[in-house]
Amino acid sequence: MTLWGGSPDAGRRLAALALAGAVVALALLASNLAPYDASRPDFDALLAPPGTTHLLGADELGRDVLSRLLVAGRMSLWIGTASVASSFVIGALAGMSAGYFRSWVDAFVMRSVDLISAFPAVLLALALGATLGPGLGNVIVAIAAVNLPVFARLARTQTLVVRELGFVEARRSLGFGPVDILFRTVAPNISPPLLTQACLLFGSSILLESYLSFLGVGIQPPTPTLGRMLHDAIGFLDQAPWLVCFPGFAIFLAVLGFNLLGDWMNDNLDPRENLIDFEAGT
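Predicted structure:
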């Protein structure tokens, strides 16, 4: 497996890394890069168009759009990271347990996953968001619940394959317990496809958070979010179209960057080429 070099997909790899890296860097450095306070109104700049004073214009309260985009991007990055990490850990543990122990554990986990998956993703997130109420923690829970079945199913499928391999059977015959085998042998060998899926779901989590904020069940003002910026801009579409264009384009770039990165990881991180026997150290 060649991760670097002059391979045909080098351009796609660099584009994915550059775009995803730029999104992360801008979000992390939002406080340093934002030219204005993202929540401070300026009544002398109401609906000001893009120019030298406000590079991307100002909104209906005179707040700088560029500053709000940077802060909103940081919020989206945080929500995406927390929700994907939560669903990754819980889903992977559930799927590994189902695939390794089988029997009633498998039946219980997979029927629970089927129940969650029976609802369309956006509808489930909206229902959970409306039930739990707006707020950062509740948005993370809602998005994590939507992503959890994906990780659980993938972890179970991969575990069913790895548990039958020779080095896993050898560790069982040597008296190693299920916990040791799951965490020291199975988990490292199923991690590449799970990490790839996490990268792909990161972009969709950002998009889902934007849906929730746009519909009013996500993060509430005055905290800027990309979805809320779109919601607030709808009434000024004729007067100030840049208020819709810039947040929409930011969402597009963020989702595109992580999707490209996930596609590249999917093409290059083939778990069959990297099976690891941790007891042998190879």
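Summary: Residues 65-101 form the longest helix (37 residues).
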